[in-house]
Every structure is written in structure tokens, then in C-alpha cells.
Amino acid sequence: MADVLNHGGDGGDEPPHEHANRLQADCQTAPAAKKRGPSRSLHLVKLFQSNGKRPLPIDFDTKEGTYLPTGENQKYFSRVVGTHVRQFVHPYFDRWANVPEEQKARATGCIYEFFDVNPRHYSKADYKLIVDGIEDTAARRYRQYKANVNAYIRDKGTAVPYRGLPVDVWEKCIERSSSKKFKEKMVEEREDQTQQASSSGVAVNEHDVVLKVLGERRGHRRSVGRVLRGTSRSHSSTTTLQDQHGTNQSTKATNALKR
């Protein structure tokens, strides 16, 4: 992931600033989603404004080795990641690794503008793992975003673009979801889940089918996230970043900053 800490998303050679007095232009001008968002996003805006529009303090767990957000503001972290991934990354790439660096930088740059992820607070090794963890969170939210788009195509059809996606982006989403390779994976995964459901008595979850086809990153567990080497399953499950507020979050947090 490009190091875009307060660089305005370009990840240049200049050292990152310790603080930013204002959000980069992309973060300020991101258009709002049509759907009304939950109050937590608006609360984040108020916190940011009351802090003089400077990055909010946030800590990361280096002691236990999870490198996940901790502290009072950690509950907003995943929301900001998801909001800007949906805003700036096109949902038709096979995986996060294939997303152009420019799109990644625009999305993750806003994360650093909202939160004071300061390399001076951590060792060089710890900071690298923190940055890797932020990218892992972005990858997970991107995978969920693609699943939502594919579910929309399945349920609503292709006549109206998903949440106002540009026509060229929407056409590529349709092309991907209708490809032979994607359909074959969907059929294969649905058959696997049907077999599991028949033995367990649990109905097939179409959303899980899509998520599985879209792929889980190596070193991750569903509903757990990134698992570090030597970390036990039980420990990981209690310390990972969870998306507690679903996937239908709004972009009001960034749009309101224009006021």
C-alpha cells in the first residue's frame, strides 16, 4: 500500500506531516450517497470539526500483536475505510491487489486524514504492520462492496446502475458478473453450500456464496480478518476488527465536512 499519510494521497517522497489542518480535496468533495446514513457518521464529523479539523487520535494494539485500532475512536475506523473504498474504488476488479494504486491512494488517503496514524508513535516494524492492517481492512471492505454490487445485479437487474455508479463503471461490473468464469465459480460454490446445507439443515446463504466466489485473502478468516503468524484462533477471534454496523454506511461523514 502506498504510504499516503497526510500526503493528500500521492504517497510522494516528502515525509508525512504530523498533522493536517484540513482534509484533502477528495475527502471534502466526495458526493453523498442517496441513502440516509446512520448517526455515527455524523458524530464522527462533529468530533473532527471540534478537533479543529485535525486528525483524530487513534491507537493500535502493538502489545498483543493484533495491530488493530484501539481507543475511543476505533469504532469509527472501519466505517471510514468502507465509505472511502466505495467512493473511490471501482467494484469490478477481481481482488484488492488488482486495484490501481491511484484508486487505492485516494481511498486510503482519506483514512489517514481522519485519523492521526503517526509513524513517530511506533517502531518502524510496528508501523509497517499497522499500515498493512489498514490495507487488509480496505481489502475486506472492498470484497464486501463487490458482493453488494453482484447481489444488486442478481436481484434488481442491470437497467439502473447500483447507487449511481457511472455508466462505464457499471458496464464493467455487468461484464464481470456475466463472465463465464464468474458464473462457473458461482455454480460451484452454490453446489458446495447446498451439500453442506443438506447435511446441517441450514439454508444456503446466497450472500456467502458471492463472498466466497469473490475470494478470501490468504491469512484471513471470515468474520475474523487478518491473522498473524503464531496467533491462536481463539485469540484472533476476540481481538479483530469487526464490521458491527453492516455494509450500508453512508458518505455523509465526508460530505458534511464541506459545510
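That was protein one. Protein two is written in the same sequence-then-structure order:
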Amino acid sequence: MDWLPSEIITQILSRLPVRSVYVCRSVCKTWLNIIDDRRRFVPLHFSRSLEEKEATTFIFVPSGNRRPIYMVEVKKEQHNYKATQIDFCGPHYNTKYANSCNGLFCFSATPSYSDNDYHTYIHNPATRECVKLPSSFSCLESMDINLPHGDLFVNNLGIGYDFSSNAFKVLQILGVSYGFGHPTSVKAQVYTLGTNSWRQLENFPHVSCFQSIPALINGSLHWPSYENILAFDLASENFGFVEYPQINLVPNAPSVFPEINPRLVVLDGCLSIAVSSSGEDVGLWIMKDYNVKESWIKLVIKRNYLHDRVKFHSVLPITFWKNGELLLLYGSKILVSYDTSGRYTLFEYESFPACKYDFFFKSYSWSEVYPYVGNLMSIDITCRTEAQP
């Protein structure tokens, strides 16, 4: 294809999936130079990927530590798929996935032999690069945190992109745990990729959020709490609140774990919340106009008990896709396509481990699933720091 102008080759390659692009790097030197042009080709390829109307690649995030993430490519015309395991730091680390932004994963990790060596990592599955951020606990002495009877830990963690400064930022909210029960959030820190230290945020509103994967939308990270949704604006670095629809998350009696499990997701570019409890249908609320309480609309997802082999704790909406159907995670492992009439279409995939029983929670481990768009950008260059295992 040397007779084709480089511009046409660039346009063709920019429409291929990430894995195919990597294969094309080995075709010839001309293609290699085009693909490795990080100032021109990489942003073009990522913008083209974002233009795809329907998500086809998803990541499965199992609960607990030391459990790998799996990636699955789904096409509605097929019903059987193969899951690919993504390794982060190796078998000797306890890892916990936080979220992803523009193809980059954010997660925390500690060595299995020590709980004191906590670090945050940024990982790009497409390029297999992994960068360890500086320790955030080194500056805790200046925070004036009094812990007479509690343990300090990272309660919430997430990465986002600040379009005003063209920079990735990582936010972590520190919590204090006094044994069993809901932790109390006390401080917040932010890290800008490319710098060397975390910065303490003085404007943290001291609201306790659920430990969950944040929803990234409208330039803000969002976490659910009992009273409302906490929002962190990545540009201004200010905190705010988004009001819930007509739902009540406050338990009638003190409980270690809430009976109602809210999960924030982004559906069709809208902030959404799925609320379910054992044995009930799932209430899916979608905010059509951001931060306008009156714009919440409700959809009801009917549970399906026809499949005896599917035992589930909750149903998690993932994305709208072909023919307006809603892709769901059903039973923490089964992907289904759901239409408004209540009809389910199941998708099965191989190479995914069986759910294991958790003796502490007295239940089987669960997974969450999120759409994923690959990015060829180099985080080594972006972070300007040495990658570490």
C-alpha cells in the first residue's frame, strides 16, 4: 500500500480498534511511524473511537482484592465471547480498581505482605504502561488529623480529565474507620499528573460517601452518599452536590451495610442512578438535564427469575445500545440485553472465573461492568515519571 498517500493511510488506521492498530505497527516502517505519531495520530484515533455510537468493549471489575480485571468485546450478533484477563502489579499485590478515564485505569495497590505501603497507580491496558504515583500519606502529618481510636484509609478514589488545563487529575477522599460501621470521611487530596506531590483540598464538605466506582460526567467525579450525590469539579477543584430523585437511602435502623445499594452510572451522556434491594425490581433514574432535580425520569427494570442458574445480588445498567435496548449486568456475571417489554437476551463468555463465596460478607463475590474505550497515549510521557512495577 505504499502507493497510497500517508493521509489516506492515517484515516484508515484511525478507524481500526486498538488491538488491530498494534498489529499494524509491524506491517512496515511507514505504518509504524504514522501510528507512533503521538501528537497527531493518537488523539485522532481516540476521538474516532469516541464517535462510535455503541460500546463494544467492557471491563469486568470483581469485588475484593487480588482479583484481576477482565475485558470482553461484545457484538450483538454473537452470543459467546472470550474474556481477557488484565494484570496490574502481579500476584503479590492487593489491588483495587477505582475507575477509568480516556482509556486510563486508576487503581490502588499494597503489597500482600504489608498494609502500610499504599500507592495509587495509573495503567493503560492498550500500551501496557503502568505508572506509580508518589505516596499520598507522606504529607498526612501536616493535615492535623486526630485519630485516637480509628484507622485512616482511602475511602474514595478516582481519575478524571480537566479540559481547562488539559491535565489528568486524581482525587482521593480519606476516611476514618472505627471498627465496623460506615466510615467517616475527613480529608481530600488531589494529584495532577505530571507533578510530584499531592495537594490538600481545604474545601472538602465532610460528607461520607459509599465506597463505589465514581461516575465521571460534566467534568466532575460523582459518588453517592445517604443524603445526596457528591460532585467534584475537576477544573475548579470545588465540591458540590447533586440532589437525588424521590428515593430514600437512609436505613430505618443502624446497619453495617445498607439494604439499598445505589450505583451511579452514565447512560447516554446522562448521570443515572440504579437503586435495588433484594427481591425487588430495579429503579433506574436518569437525569436528562445535569444538576436539574426536576429532570430526573424513572425507568423500571423487571427482574427475571426464569433462569434458575442465575443468582444475583443486584442488576447493574451498563449502557444503551442497539435498537434502544439496555445492556445489563445480571447476576454479577451474566450480560443481558433488555428491552422495554421485559425481554432478556443473554450473552455468555469464556475464560471468566466462577464466583467465589466470601465468608466475611456471607455471599458470593460480585462484579461491576463498565464500557471501555482504548487509548494509544503514553502515560509515561504524560506523567513524566518513571514507571514502576
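The chain has two domains: 1-51, 52-383. Keep this in mind for the problem set.
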